[in-house]
Records
---
Amino acid sequence: MNRDFRQIRLEGVTRRFSDAGRAAFNAVSGLTLTIERGEFIALLGPSGCGKSTALNLVAGLLPLSDGSIWLDDERIDALPPEKRGFGMVFQNYALFPHMSVVRNIDFGLRMRGMPAAEIRRRVADVLKMVQLIGQENKLPGQLSGGQQQRVAIARAIVIQPPLVLMDEPLSNLDAKLRLETRSEIRRIHRDLARTTIYVTHDQEEALSLADRIIVMIDGVVQQIGTPQEVYSQPANLAVATFMGYRNLLELDVERSDGERVTLTGPDVRLTGTRKLPLPDGRAWVAMRPEEMMVGDGAGSANTIAVRVDAVEYCGRDSLLDLRTASGHRLHVRATGDYAAGTQVHVHVPVERALVYPQA
Ligand SMILES: Nc1ncnc2c1ncn2[C@@H]1O[C@H](COP(=O)(O)OP(=O)(O)O)[C@@H](O)[C@H]1O
Ligand SMILES: [Mg+2]
């Protein structure tokens, strides 16, 4: 197998499941994607959207129902996992509980019959990389969750795999460790200069780690883009909703002028920006709570009159629960003191009110 591949290509990769008592369905449907050597790819989507299935298809732990996987010109989707030689890191670490840190890490190398001196050298290298020097002889049960996950990462990278696959590796860690381990994963990826596919349901993880994000919903890729693109220009309403555009208003299209669209409702009139063609009639406006501004000045453009329903203090700012006279609910982040019951206005920049056709 070509360990120095330039690209890994997925073409129409599909996995169908048929459970007893449930109609057959595609957990992953027509996944087509080219990953360049050295890239850090995040596969992002809500729980149950098919992320783990997709990763297991790449690893060879599940057979494809349709499609193909290629390393440059070599088709690899019929190869067993050990022939692909990818490194896997799972959510639950999957360490051998009765083996020491070193034994867990060098297991794969011993299985391959590598000479002892070479094994010692490689293990010493990865122990340094994951910062576990001094912990060599402990058992997994004697380590913290973060340390155990670093053993799992060491075990995956010690075989020097051309591709590292990680399935929600941080989800069992507490908030502080999650942040630390996240930076470690990014550093290790850079140091190794290998390719990584990282599965997560956490937008922030994907945004902070990845060169490119693949957003998947219900087994179907919705968008492939840089973190900036996925964050600020979601491809459709479903991606916008998943990416934290919590404020969704269904309104009547009054006027379209290129990308500019003006929409109206009983007590709302907004101009926003569209990327997709809009049918006549109704459309959705999606806005982030942190991209709307609260003020008391009525009359300025693109404002909505609202009443403060509730204030949730968050430290650096507050999350305001707002309601228009006709009952549209909005959430806006704001600094300053606002009391429930007050009348205020919220403003949104035209380019940050994204307009989408009906879902
Ligand atoms: N072995 C299986 N048999 C039947 N259905 C499965 C199997 N594995 C996963 N599924 C279903 O496929 C869908 C995607 O699952 P999964 O890939 O685990 O999602 P994610 O990792 O994004 O949470 C879910 O509806 C899940 O219930
Ligand atoms: Mg999963």
Note: The chain is about 25% helix and 35% strand.
---
Amino acid sequence: MDWDRYRHCTLCPRHCGADRLAGRTGFCGETAACRIASIGPHFGEEPCFSGSRGSGTVFFSGCSCGCFFCQNHQISHEHLGDEYTPERLFEALLELVGKGVHNLNFVTPDHFQPHVLEVCRRLRGAGVEIPFLYNCSGYMERERVPVMAEMMDIFLPDFKFADPLLAQRCLGDPRYPELAVAAIAEMISCVGLLKPWDETGERPARRGVLVRHLVLPGEVENSLRVLETLHHRFGPELPLSVMSQYRPTPRCANRGEFARTLHADEYRRVCDRVEELGFYRVFIQPEFGDENFLPDFARDQPFAGNPGS
Ligand code: SF4
């Protein structure tokens, strides 16, 4: 167990140095008591992760990234969630595995890395064999990647901003582009690119990296730069998920174009560039106006599209 990592916390690039074991908080707003907003099967991830029985998602409260437009603002900014001791988390994840999910998907886990590593070790010790998935913002120091790769089979990082000024405006750190590219390179060196998956969804992905990018309203130039940066650094074989599901949240009021949804022609321009650059392992989201993508963590089932919601 590596709980000491919480003592003078440098788990993310903010390096706040907060003594979270003493109940203090840094930028992420969380102490060393692990808090979670939702645990359950989720069918809204890319088909290679959701498959037919769902991805076993764990949504942690708080976030070290803290983008003002966060689509999960109820948990990242408002800190909705319950405290989970290591034992409670282990039992909850064993129960989730028992439901037949294809993987365990740790969402925004950076500020709770010691808890994630600990529960993954215990689950492997208990005979759990399904892949573990690190679903993160990309705002991560390269050195932390091999530590997490000891337990992770799949990395699912965002690459949100190639424009340092936009990164500064959205999350307050212009280093995001260089940090994220370095972290993604390290992820690929640890687990490779996402291996081909069975399109029927019966045998979802088991290992590798897939990069996500959410297209932001009024910020197409950033998205084009994201694609060009990824192409230049990793080539067209990099698996990508280019998302159109942006919805303005209450914090986006008075934030210019962030207060509206994405226009179809903006998304089309980005998809055209994906094609021009020759990326060929790409998920796109053709639909607009699907509210199922915006979760409500105040409900038992945060995602309206999930069975039982
Ligand atoms: S994980 Fe939280 S406390 Fe630790 S350095 Fe990052 S923002 Fe600060």
Note: The chain has one domain: 34-293.
